[in-house]
C-alpha cells in the first residue's frame, strides 16, 4: 500500500468521526443542557424518565453502529481462487472462448455452486482478485477485495455492507430513526419555548434549538433510506441487484433469488428466531456463497449442471426444499395425474409401456411414478 492508499484509508474515517462528534454533542445538549439545567428545576420525575429512555435508545443505536463498522466483511472462500498453475493456464490462453471454457472446467471440477453468469453467458471472474465470483459477489474498489453478497460500500460506517453485516446496517438505520425521533419529540416543547423567548435558560436554548433541527433532519433523511432497504429486503435484492439484475440462463431476472414472499425474504436476513430480530446478533441464513433460486430455474439455470448432474433439486438449502416443491406443484394447474403411452407398440400388438405420474395435493407433496407393461400377441 502506497502513500495514496494510506491517505485514502485515513480519509475514509472522516464520516465516522463526524457522526461520532455529532453523537457526543447531542449527548451534551440533551443530558446536560436539557435534562440537568432545564428540567431539573421543573420536574425531577420527568427528567429521570427522559434520561432513562434516552440512554436506552442511545445504547441500542451505538451497539448496532459499532457492529456495522467493525464486523469483518464476508470474503470469498479459498476454493473459488485460482491456484498458481490454474492462473498460469488461464492467462496463457489468448482466446476469450477458451478462457471461458477453462473457467467452466475449473468450476466444474471444484463443484462450485454457481447459478449466475455474465451478460455474455460466461463465468463471472475477477481479474483483480483472480477468482471465480460466487453468486451475488462483487469486487469493492474501496476495500479492494471481492465481497460476498455485496450491497454497497457505505462511507458513514467506512465498511462494505454485505452478507456478514447487512442485518446490522438495517438495524442501524432503524435505531437511528428511533433515537432521532425520540430526541426531536422530547425537545420540541422546549424548542417552542425558546422560539417564543419564554425559556428559563436562553443560553442553553441554542443547543436545544440546534438539537431539534439536527435530529429532525437526520430522522427524515434516514427514514427515506430505511424505506429503500425495506423494499430491498422484501424482494431479496441487494442495492447493486436493484440497479442491475443478476443474469441467469434465461436472462436477467431480479426475482431470481427471491424466496417467494416478504416473510421468507425477511427471514433470510434476520433469521427465524423472533427474539433476535431487533438485536445486532448475526442470524442471517446460509453461508453467503450459495443461495436458493426460484423453482422455475431449477431445471434450466444451474450454470454447470448440464455437464455434472441433474438440475432438479440442486442448489437449494435444506430449509427451502419444501418451498421449491410447492412452487413446482403450483406450476402444474391442469391435473394431478399424467399418462404417456407408447402408441406404436399397442397398435401393432406388441408391448405397450404405460407410465403414470401422480402428484399428491397435500403440503408434503410426493411424486409417485408407476410403470405398467402390457404384453400382447
Describe this structure in words.
- With 377 residues, this protein is mainly α.
- It contains twelve helices and eleven strands.
- It has helices at 3-11, 14-36, 44-70, 84-92, 96-110, 166-195, 202-235, 239-243, 262-270, 305-308, 321-330, 343-347; strands at 125-126, 131-132, 138-140, 145-147, 152-154, 159-161, 247-248, 251-252, 337-341, 351-359, 367-375.
- The strands form five sheets. The protein has a three-stranded antiparallel beta sheet with strand order 9-10-11. It has a two-stranded antiparallel sheet with strand order 1-2.
- β7 (247-248) and β8 form a beta hairpin.
- The chain is elongated, with a radius of gyration of 29 Å.
- The N and C termini lie far apart (84 Å).
- 29% of the residues are buried.
- Residues 123-243 form the Palmitoyltransferase DHHC domain.
The Rg value, from CA coordinates, equals: 29 Å
* Parts with pLDDT < 50 across at least 5 consecutive residues: 295-300, 306-377
Strand order, biggest sheet? 9-10-11
- Number of beta strands: 11
The biggest beta sheet, please? 3 strands, antiparallel
The proportion of residues in beta strands is 5-15%
Q: How far do the termini sit from each other?
A: 84 Å
Number of separate helices: 12
Please state the overall shape, judged from the principal axes of the Cα atoms.
Answer: elongated
- Helix/strand-derived class? mainly alpha
What is the string of SSEs from the N terminus onward?
Answer: HHHHHEEEEEEHHHEEHHHEHEE
Instruction: Specify the helix fraction band.
Output: 40-55%
Mean pLDDT reading: 82
Amino acid at each position: 500500500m502506497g502513500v495514496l492508499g494510506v491517505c485514502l484509508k485515513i480519509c475514509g474515517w472522516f464520516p465516522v468521526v463526524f457522526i461520532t462528534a455529532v453523537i457526543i454533542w447531542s449527548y451534551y445538549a440533551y443530558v446536560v443542557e436539557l435534562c440537568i439545567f432545564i428540567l431539573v428545576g421543573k420536574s425531577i420525575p420527568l427528567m429521570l424518565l427522559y434520561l432513562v429512555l434516552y440512554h436506552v435508545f442511545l445504547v441500542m443505536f451505538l451497539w448496532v453502529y459499532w457492529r456495522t463498522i467493525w464486523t469483518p466483511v464476508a470474503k470469498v472462500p479459498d476454493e473459488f481462487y485460482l491456484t498458481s498453475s490454474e492462473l498460469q493456464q488461464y492467462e496463457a490462453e489468448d482466446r476469450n472462448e477458451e478462457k471461458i471454457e477453462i473457467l467452466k472446467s475449473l468450476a466444474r471440477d471444484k463443484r462450485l455452486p454457481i447459478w449466475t453468469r455474465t451478460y455474455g453467458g460466461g463465468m463471472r471472474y475477477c481479474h483483480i482478485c483472480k477468482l471465480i465470483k460466487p453468486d451475488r459477489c462483487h469486487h469493492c474498489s474501496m476495500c479492494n477485495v471481492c465481497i460476498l453478497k455485496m450491497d454497497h460500500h457505505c462511507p458513514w460506517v467506512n465498511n462494505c455492507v454485505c452478507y456478514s453485516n447487512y442485518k446490522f446496517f438495517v438495524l442501524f438505520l432503524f435505531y437511528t430513526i428511533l433515537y432521532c425521533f425520540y430526541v426531536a419529540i422530547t425537545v420540541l416543547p422546549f424548542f417552542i419555548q425558546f422560539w417564543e423567548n419564554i425559556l428559563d435558560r436562553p443560553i442553553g436554548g441554542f443547543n436545544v434549538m440546534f438539537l431539534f433541527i439536527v435530529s429532525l433532519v437526520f430522522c427524515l433523511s434516514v427514514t427515506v433510506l430505511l424505506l429503500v432497504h425495506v423494499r430491498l429486503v422484501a424482494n431479496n435484492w441487494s442495492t447493486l441487484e436493484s440497479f442491475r439484475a443478476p443474469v441467469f440462463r434465461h436472462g436477467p431476472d431480479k426475482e431470481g433469488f427471491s424466496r417467494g414472499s416478504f416473510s421468507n425474504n425477511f427471514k433470510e436476513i434476520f433469521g427465524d428466531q423472533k427474539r433476535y430480530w431487533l438485536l445486532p446478533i448475526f442470524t442471517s441464513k446460509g453461508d453467503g456463497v450459495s443461495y436458493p433460486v426460484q423453482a422455475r430455474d431449477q431445471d434450466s439455470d444451474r450454470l454447470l449442471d448440464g455437464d455434472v448432474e441433474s438440475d432438479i433439486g440442486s442448489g437449494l438449502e435444506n430449509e427451502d426444499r419444501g418451498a421449491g416443491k410447492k412452487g413446482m406443484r403450483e406450476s402444474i394447474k391442469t391435473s394431478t395425474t399424467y399418462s404417456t403411452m407408447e402408441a406404436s407398440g399397442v397398435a401393432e400388438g406388441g408391448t405397450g409401456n404405460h407410465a403414470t405420474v401422480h402428484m399428491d395435493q397435500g403440503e408434503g407433496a410426493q411424486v409417485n411414478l408407476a410403470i405398467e407393461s402390457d404384453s400382447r400377441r
